[in-house]
Amino acid sequence: QVQLVESGGGLVQAGDSLRLSCAASGRPFGTLSMGWFRQAPGKEREFVAAITWTGTFTYFSDSAKGRFTISRDNAKTLVYLQMNSLKPEDTAVYYCAARDAGNSGRSYVTGTYDYWGQGTQVTVSS
């Protein structure tokens, strides 16, 4: 079983930056591909970014592209989501997710992830 714990959320103003962290445990981190998703009130959970187990490949939603970066530190079993130029529409609960590194499913599909964190709230004021 994999445990994921997110941190780093908070209340910021539009244009500010935040870095979210996700600590993973319970399984060798190098066997996991990681993703970040978010869910705003009244909306479905949506893909934000993903990173392969080596960190070689990263993927972003259109809304995140150019503003967010995803990275991982396999030695520390951490994955990060650096969010710059935040907008009010980025307000949501952000979730860290993990799946087997061999999973060939689309990285932006929620159902391809087996493990989820509890989420961290990000609120961006205008």
Comma- or semicolon-separated keywords:
globular; mainly beta; 126 residues; four-stranded antiparallel beta sheet
In short:
With 126 residues, this protein is mainly β.
Describe the model.
This protein is mostly beta strands. About 0% of the residues lie in helices and about 50% in strands. The chain has no helices and 11 strands. Strands 2, 4, 5, 6, 9, 10 and 11 form a 7-stranded mixed beta sheet that branches. It has a 4-stranded antiparallel beta sheet with strand order 1-3-8-7, with no helix packed on it. A hairpin with a 6-residue loop joins strand 5 and strand 6. It is globular and about 40 Å long. The protein starts with a strand and ends with a strand. The mean pLDDT is about 95.
Major β-sheet profile: 7 strands, mixed
Radius of gyration: 13 Å
Portion of residues within helices: under 10%
Total beta strand runs:
11
Q: What is the terminal separation in angstroms?
A: 40 Å
Shape: globular
Q: Low-confidence spans: pLDDT under 50, at least 5 residues?
A: none
The ordered H/E elements are EEEEEEEEEEE
- Tell me the structural class: mainly beta
* Number of separate helices: 0
Strand-residue proportion:
over 45%
Mean pLDDT over the residues: 96
Write the layout of secondary structure elements.
Layout: E1 3-7, E2 10-13, E3 18-25, E4 32-39, E5 46-51, E6 58-60, E7 68-73, E8 78-83, E9 92-100, E10 115-116, E11 120-125
Parallel strand pairs: 2-11
Antiparallel strand pairs: 1-3, 3-8, 4-5, 4-9, 5-6, 7-8, 9-10, 9-11
